[in-house]
Amino acid sequence: MDLDRRAADAWFRRRGLPMVIHRRRRGAGMLRRSTPGLVFLCLLDLLLAGLLKLLDVPQDVLDARMRESGLAYVLGVLALTFAVAVVPVIAGRLMVKLLRALSRTRVRLAVMAATIGFWVLVLPLGERLTGLVSWDNPLWAAVLTNLVALAVLMLLVRIGVGSILTWAARSAVAQVRAIGTLASRALPLLLLVVMFSFFTAELWQAVEGLDPGRLWLVVGFLVLIGAVFLASMLSDEMKELKSWTVEPGAAVLRGTPFDDDTPFDDAEPARARRALAKTERLNIALVLFFAQAVQIVAFGVLVFAFFIVFGVLILRPEVVTEFAGRQSAPGTLLGVPLPVSSALVNVSLFLAVFSGLYFAASTATDARYRRSFFEPLLEDVKISLAARDIYLAHWADVRRAEVVTLEAEDIP
User: Fold this and answer.
1) Whether 230 contacts 289, CB under 8 Å
2) Cα dist from 197 to 201, 298, 353, whole Å
3) Taking a C-beta distance cutoff of 8 angstroms, is the pair 300, 353 a contact?
């Protein structure tokens, strides 16, 4: 079998499995793979500074803005918040494509150097000149902080965290596309479970009586329970994955760099799975964990949005006051003002987190949910394990890494 080493390495990185790659090749094209992440940080820092500048105002100024142009102000804040979450990701992906399209090494190096210079020097100075950041914050401290962030970013890319996070971002986009499936298959049955809780006055009084810190502590506690449950479930799944094998040329490998109908060794067409290293087991577990977590978060956001809209439609302000036991203040979420009461936001948030926990348990124990939401993730990992067998067999005798240049076809 004639495999392209660079294409094989890039394929594993795209699937969030950098630990499968030979350890001496994990640093291939590190500067190039770090540049998209640096673009992400630049735009995230700039947009966050703008959002904080918009929100960090005295309460009387905020109240005046809400009275004069409440809906427009809220929509503007929501639009900027959406930009914080989306624009840096899109820009990072565009930088990946740009670096791939540039054929001349010098031009590529110039783009990388310009990005580093913008992050280290131009961005801290520009934020102060435009008033997004006060001059009370020393410029030298910001430059030093950005230098440390650059070093940490390159270290994370070196050990493969960048590949996993990039894969998680693509998985999140895929889950957004699958919102219809989540809504049609998982949401209706869940609403039968939690709908009655929504109309329970005791729940409204209990949640509304919590200060923001304690409310997020409760949310964090439920999230921790869900994370522990997922970790224990994935531990059992990893044991089953160890015994799964596939032959070269199998259908699951078609369209990959490992698609070949010729066995690597005619004398030994069947290959036993090599034991997964600890780092590989951790990498696969993280991939499954993040994929499942993205599904749960997407489902939780869907439930939260449903109860916000449902509450606005069915609950009059005086009913909310009676449920909560007191007049409820205007609602906010992560500092973003919302045109609904804080009681409705808090109750919707609590029910969304609880629903996410219920959904996580259902995907592991309910056959229908498992077949729809979890087994496709396992099938995806099985394809990666099949490719790993071929990858290790093909380069089993590698003692040295190939010379790595900036032209290596690596991805973040």
Assistant:
1) yes
2) 9, 21, 13
3) yes
Distance of CA 55 to the CA centre of its chain: 25
CA separation for the pair 62, 35 (Å, rounded): 38
pTM here is 0.65
Question: 3 φ, ψ to 5°?
Answer: -105, 145
pLDDT of residue 263: 47
The owner of tokens 């304690």 is 214
CB-count burial class (<10 Å; 0-12, 13-18, 19+) for 235: exposed
Q: Is 158 exposed, middle or buried (0-12, 13-18, 19+ CB in 10 A)?
A: middle
In sequence order, what are the residues at sequence separation of 6 or more whose Cβ sits closer than 8 angstroms to the Cβ of residue 109? 406
Provide the CB-side half-sphere exposure for 320 (13 A, CA).
25
Q: Could you tell me the two tokens for 210?
A: 């919590």
SS3 250: coil
- Alpha-carbon distance of 360 to 224, in angstroms, equals 12
The pLDDT score that the predictor gives to residue 70 is 63
> What number is the average pLDDT over the span 254-274?
55
Q: What is the pLDDT of residue 144?
A: 92
